[in-house]
Amino acid sequence: MQNNKIIALIIATTLAVPSLVLAAMSSTNYYIYADSIDFGGGVGTSTSYNLQDTVGGYAIGIGTSTSYQVRAGYQAAEIGSLSLTLSGSNINFGTLASAGVVSSGNIVATVNTDSATGYTLSVSSVSGNSLTAVTDGIVDGVGSAEEYGLAVSGSQAAYLNDTAIINGLVLSSASSPASSITTTLTFKAVRSSGSTANTYSQNITLTAAANI
């Protein structure tokens, strides 16, 4: 009997940012990020410039210490940005080759954030069925083993070896703002001579979150 396996990997992505403790106000239709009591100011424009000013702000400015930074005043308040893009959302290994031959596929994740504390990219959920997860740190099929796992590479990669894909697995992180930081996700699979012929698929959700 021919031992056919098809692994379709579908990656969904979500973005998450930590809750902010602010004097923000909201309603069904509006959200005020930072409110201020002043007696003047507004938006002024010209051909070349746009000026947003306030008059009467109290105790404005940026104060810092070893552990904290306070941005006081309406103009100092700002919402950070965080983005995650992927080079693709699906990997299809097709029919796996002969027993012991490793199949692999790559997806590149790119993170941008101006968060002063950086970001963490991780696996937030996994569903579906897969081959036996790798346990020895390398998907190589040595000893006719059936193995499936994920390796990551890049300047902020969280680990070096092939690893089982589980909820909460951290893929990369940084402790400072990130500008187009890329992490290559390499999915690997190998069947053994005793593997059960079947179609395998997994849905994996990745989450990029600004560090608190």
CATH architecture of the largest domain: Sandwich
Give me the Rg, rounded. Answer: 24 Å
Assembly state (oligomeric) = single chain
The residue fraction in helices comes out at: under 10%
Roughly what is the average pLDDT, rounded to an integer? 80
Per CATH, what is the topology of the largest domain? Immunoglobulin-like
Q: Domains counted in the coordinates: how many?
A: 2
The number of helices is 0
How many DSSP E strands?
15
State the major sheet: 5 strands, mixed
CATH class of the largest domain: Mainly Beta
Measured between the Cα atoms of the first and last residue, the distance is 54 Å
The strands making up the biggest β-sheet line up spatially as 9-1-15-11-13
DSSP strand (E) fraction?
A: over 45%
Cα shape: elongated
- Give the SSE order as H and E letters: EEEEEEEEEEEEEEE
Question: Which runs of at least 5 residues are low in confidence (pLDDT < 50)?
Answer: 1-7, 17-22
By helix and strand content, what is the structural category?
Answer: mainly beta
Task: Considering the chains and any ligands shown, give keywords for the structure.
five-stranded mixed sheet; 50% strand; mainly beta; 212 residues; elongated; Immunoglobulin-like; four-stranded antiparallel sheet
Structure description:
This protein has 212 residues and is mostly beta strands. The chain has two domains: 5-17 and 81-210, Immunoglobulin-like (Sandwich); 25-72, no CATH class. It has strands at residues 5-16, 25-26, 31-32, 40-45, 50-55, 61-64, 69-72, 82-86, 90-95, 103-113, 119-129, 147-153, 170-174, 178-190, 198-210. The strands form five sheets. The protein has a five-stranded mixed sheet, with no helix packed on it. It has a four-stranded antiparallel sheet with strand order 8-10-14-12, with no helix packed on it. The chain has a two-stranded antiparallel sheet with strand order 2-3.
